[in-house]
Every structure is written in C-alpha cells, then in structure tokens.
Amino acid sequence: MSEATKKLRVGVIGLGMGRAHIKGWQEHPHVEVVALADPDSARLTTVGEEFSVACRYASAEEMLATERLDVVSV
To answer: pTM for the whole thing?
Structure first.
C-alpha cells in the first residue's frame, strides 16, 4: 500500500478478546479502527474510550448496517 492509499476501515465485534484485536489493528499504519460492537454497554463505553473509537454499537448487525467497513474482526 502506498502512503497515498487510504487506510482500511476496521470494525471490531466483541470486546472481550476484541481488546487484543484493537491493539493489533491500531499498530498497523494503514488501518483505522472506526467502530466497535458489543452488547455490554459498560464494556463498550470503557473500551471505546480506552482506544479512542467514537462509533459504538450494541449489536453487530447495527454496526454492519451503518458503517462502511473494509474489515470486520470478530
């Protein structure tokens, strides 16, 4: 990927193991984690704030219907 190429937009579903997925994705220079989905609202808020991800959804279906993602990590 060249520097001029836009970053891949990633959504993460499930924030138990998903924390490790987010850390890995955020280390890649051509990736942006843009959305999270988890039915546990407290965990969703905590993880969203921890990793500075603003778009948060209570269901995977809602996230997938709303966001334009290139990659989904489960």
So the answer is: 0.91
